[in-house]
């Protein structure tokens, strides 16, 4: 029996290491997803005697979601607008904080802990309680700037995003802990000699950021965008998840319609991430 080549052994070891994840994905994720796709084309009833009873109704669940269920369409559009506004704010904030933490400042580990602390204690119940108590707003800024009065004469498509960002600024920045660590890890991998050579050539700090730092961490921007979208979409406080959950346990709609809503939600999120990734890649090439 011939001995395996070194490269073949590495491939075997690699497959062995990822095999638990692959098995878990196939049996615990892929099968439920495909089954929910099947249920989305059916009217589902759950009985005590026969269990799950399905009736094939083609695309009726999807038609009802788009043309009849006004609350779902409105909630989905509102959530996509929130994503469109929140994701750039989170990414930019995380990048700025990562740049500051990567600089030569005292007590860097202490500040890293502070910015990562919300990730440890975050949960839907915690943020819900903080929101009800007004802890996620900036009262001092609200006293200085009356945002609603300031944007009253602005066009609606400009006023609404500005009001949303200022009213939910703390909540938005709450989700930036992981992104800061990802950017910080990428910044620490950049060769310091590149910065030294650029400074010798007379490059300014702004030019160094645009020509060296930003292209080097461009793949991490896409990673953080995907992570942020998944984090916000899976968070229980977003406006779409309660609608899917309520329809799941509704007698008139049931699991079939809820599965259709979940797949519509997934498709829109994938399209959203794809647009963001395509835009980031094209900007990086330019």
Supply the CATH class of the largest domain: Mainly Alpha
Overall mean pLDDT stands at: 80
- Spans with pLDDT under 50 lasting ≥5 residues? none
CATH architecture of the largest domain: Orthogonal Bundle
Order of helices and strands: HEEHHHHHHHHHHHHHH
Q: Tell me the total number of β-strands.
A: 2
In the sheet with the most strands, the strands line up as 1-2
How many strands, which pairing sense, and closed or not: the largest β-sheet? 2 strands, antiparallel
What sort of overall outline do the alpha carbons produce when their principal axes are compared? globular
Q: How large is the radius of gyration?
A: 24 Å
Give the oligomeric state of the chains in this entry, treating copies of one chain as homo and distinct chains as hetero.
single chain
Helix/strand structural class: mainly alpha
| Helix share bin | over 70%
Give the domain tally.
Answer: 2
Taking the alpha carbons of the first and last residues, their distance comes to 53 Å
Give the helix tally.
Answer: 15
Query: CATH homologous superfamily of the largest domain?
Result: MetI-like
Strand content: under 5%
Explained architecture:
This protein has 286 residues and is mostly helical. The protein folds into two domains: 6-10 and 15-56, no CATH class; 60-122 and 175-285, Orthogonal Bundle (MetI-like fold), CATH 1.10.3720. The chain is built from 15 helices and two strands. The protein has helices spanning 6-39, 60-67, 70-102, 108-121, 124-132, 139-144, 147-150, 156-167, 169-173, 177-188, 192-200, 205-216, 218-234, 241-248, 254-285, and strands spanning 42-47, 51-56. The chain has a two-stranded antiparallel sheet with strand order 1-2. Helix 3 (70-102) crosses helix 13 (218-234). The radius of gyration is 24 Å and the shape is globular.
